[in-house]
Amino acid sequence: MTEDGAGPSLPLRQLGQYFRRARSDAHLTLDQVSAHMEWSPSKLSRLERGQPGKLTNRDIRTLCEFLEFETEQTAAMLGLAQQAAVKSWWHAFGDLIPENFNVYVGMESSARHLEIFRPDIIPGLFQTADYTRVLDRIYFPSGSAEEHDMRIDVRMKRQKIFTRKIKPVTLDVVLHESVLRTIVGGGAVMAAQLSHLADVSTRPNVSIRVLPFAAGFPVGLAVGPYVILEFGTAPIEPTVVYVENYTGDLYLEGESDLQKYRSATAAIQRVALDAVSSRNLLRQMTKEYRQ
Where on the phi/psi map is residue 254: left (φ > 0), alpha (ψ -120 to 50), or beta? Predict the structure, then answer.
């Protein structure tokens, strides 16, 4: 338990969700899995709900083996369990949790609403394949063509969360104007990317707005990229702030942290262009890049 409340921590909730999903995919009942683990069904149920309880590394390895987890998945489960006592936590790539095991993507796919601010690049959810490919080749200069294609495919599949027919996520996005004017891959790539943004912004569940240079610093200082994820099931699944960093990810659940980011979002949205003006700017810049 932390000072911010008595609910389960984010790592513990994620651990439980991965185990519950794996059991369901294997078509196993609580009784079947708990019998193998020599647990009571209630203990396994508490674990799947993310509730605190006694759990050893041996327990996790045994459960992962029974559910046929890959080695990397097992390492990720052990990493989540080691961080189960904290609410706001730092996921350093290659540390407790393997770099390729993306905790954020799992959270993103189950969220009901996302508020995104990007002062640097187009958010992954809205990147075209060509825009993604340029960035991926820079970040992974020694990667093979197959590896680049695999990461691009993952990025494109993520975008289904706002186009799916059943419970598509709603998004409120603010991009700094510099994102639109920073050239990635040349004029043709940028034209296609901004045209895609303009098209996506017409969806009823997506709002894309631009923070113009003229707005200055609405929060009083520079604010880095962040995402506020709401799941619609609080307090069982509380709101989380995800802060992306070059060397890792920061997940925040504390009420004081949430309030700061909500205040920042409100300040940014107050001075951002409205949705229609933002779309018009995207269309205008698309034409400029095509010239």
Answer: beta
Pairing type for strands 226-230 and 248-252 reads unpaired
Domain 103-290 is of which CATH architecture?
Answer: 2-Layer Sandwich (3.30)
Cα angle value 108/110/112 (rounded, 5°): 90
pTM: 0.78
Using one digit for the tens of pLDDT, what is the confidence trace for 78-135?
Answer: 988 887 766 555 655 455 555 655 778 888 888 999 999 999 999 999 999 999 999 9
- The pLDDT tens digits of the residues spanning 212-251 come to 999 999 999 989 999 999 988 655 678 999 998 888 788 8
In this predicted structure, what is the pLDDT of residue 99? 60
SS (H, E, C) the chain: CECCECCCCHHHHHHHHHHHHHHHHCCCCHHHHHHHHCCCHHHHHHHHCCCCCCCCHHHHHHHHHHCCCCHHHHHHHHHHHHCCCCCCEEEECCCCCCCCCCHHHHHHHHCCEEEEEECCCCCHHHCCHHHHHHHHHHHCCCCCHHHHHHHHHHHHHHHHHHCCCCCCCEEEEEEEHHHHHCCCCCHHHHHHHHHHHHHHCCCCCEEEEEECHHHCCCCCCCCCCEEEEECCECCCECCEEEEEECCEEEEECCHHHHHHHHHHHHHHHHHCCCHHHHHHHHHHHHHHHHC
Of the CATH numbers 1.20.120.450, 1.10.260.40, 3.40.50.150, 3.55.40.20, which one belongs to the domain with range 10-85?
1.10.260.40
Amino acid at 26: A
What residue ranges do the domains of the chain occupy? 10-85, 103-290
* pLDDT tens profile 125-168: 999 999 999 999 999 999 899 999 998 998 899 999 999 999 99
